[in-house]
Structures are given as C-alpha cells and as structure tokens.
Amino acid sequence: MAAGVPSEQRMANQIASNLRHQPADRAAETLAAHIRRFWDPRMRARLFALVDAGADGLDPVVVEGARLLRKDQEERVG
C-alpha cells in the first residue's frame, strides 16, 4: 500500500486479504467480528468515516464488513 494510506484502511484491507479464501459474505462477517472484538471505538469510527467518504482503495469486503458492524452496533444501542 502507498504511503499516506490511513492505518485503519491498511489494517482492514489486510484482514480482508487474509480472508480471501472465504466467500465474500462470510469474509465480511468474519472481518466485522474481528473489528468488533479487537478495535477500539475510535478506530471503528475512523473506519466508518473512511467508508462514508468512499475512500479509494477500500476492499469491497471491508465496505460490507463495516456496514454489518455498523448495523450490529445500531441494533445493540436500540
């Protein structure tokens, strides 16, 4: 990845790359679960901001995983 890529984008894309052996929907669920468990709320917020801004270079699995994660967070809040 090029210099200047936000760390959340780089890390999320690496996770997606490691999940490439799974079908895309399963990979997105696994990515969301990993981020839910291991990323702090500030990191998740920065990832959501990148997805919302349509950041160049985001893996489609990351975009779908972020959507699933956001949906799960909204459901937990109420």
UniProtKB/TrEMBL annotation:
Protein name: NAD-dependent formate dehydrogenase subunit delta
Lineage: superkingdom: Bacteria
InterPro entries per record: Formate_DH_dsu
